[in-house]
Amino acid sequence: MFKELSPSLRTILTPGPVEADPRVLRAMSTPILGQFDPEFTHIMNQTMQMLRKLFQTENEWCYPIDGTSRAGIEAVLCSLIEPGDLVLVPIYGRFGHLLVEIAERYGAQVATMETDWGEVFAPEQVIAEIKRIRPKIVAMVHGETSTGRIQPLQEIGEACRMQDVLFVVDAVATIGGTQVKVDEWKIDACIGGTQKCLSIPSGMAPITFNERVETVLRQRKKIERGLAEPQAASLGQERMIRSNYFDLSQLMDYWSPTRLNHHTEATTMLYAL
Ligand SMILES: Cc1ncc(COP(=O)(O)O)c(C=O)c1O
Fold first, then answer.
1. Distance from Cα 69 to the centre of ligand 1, integer Å
2. How many CA within 13 A on the CB side of residue 272?
3. Considering only CA atoms, which residue is closest to atom 12 of ligand 1?
4. Residue 211: closest CA among 62, 45, 41
5. Most CB atoms within 10 A, among 36, 63, 142, 240?
């Protein structure tokens, strides 16, 4: 009734998806392994090493979230944001608005600042706002797909670190295509995408985060289990990470030697990555 699938060969000149590299397509036609097969866990470990190079970081935590790039953004924001947290989003195109929407859905009080589309912020503008409103998190896009502009991040990252603010960066459009220096720019959590500069199909979001983020995750997990101070235990329900799928602390257990089961890994996408 239905013919064998045979999509036409296209030259795709959009910001994503792009054509997959032939090496990627070859990797994707190799056999499925079980997710706890030692051969597969070895591939997981190697992927983490590769991602450290990609993100130019020494972070232990570098692993992909299964889902499109916004799954990576959701995982980071939902694991960090507790209801009422103040999040600053400087917007200079369409994807700034996505950060706002996701942060609001997880209960953040979002403060925005905007500049004309086609422009980027002078770092001092953002730094002044950070000092004025003292947010818990600054979430920002590195490369705005909607305008083709790149926001310089280093000075903002340094200011965030000085003010003890968490700096979250959407590098979906830039990762693998231009420098994304996670450690040097003092980015605490960074999200990439597969379907743009990496020439992989859409469906996985590589992320990295440092020990400052890990501390927040571990604290929330302790509170969830009622292991922190007694008064904190009563806040447990309220403060728990709202998503099972996107809970970075559970994913840490899955991607570390503990290998606690979480989701069923998208093995073929991992080969591609
Ligand atoms: C900068 C940026 N952030 C986030 C996204 C969302 O990615 P996805 O559509 O893979 O969920 C995109 C997609 O084009 C993007 O360009």
1. 6
2. 26
3. 172
4. 62
5. 142
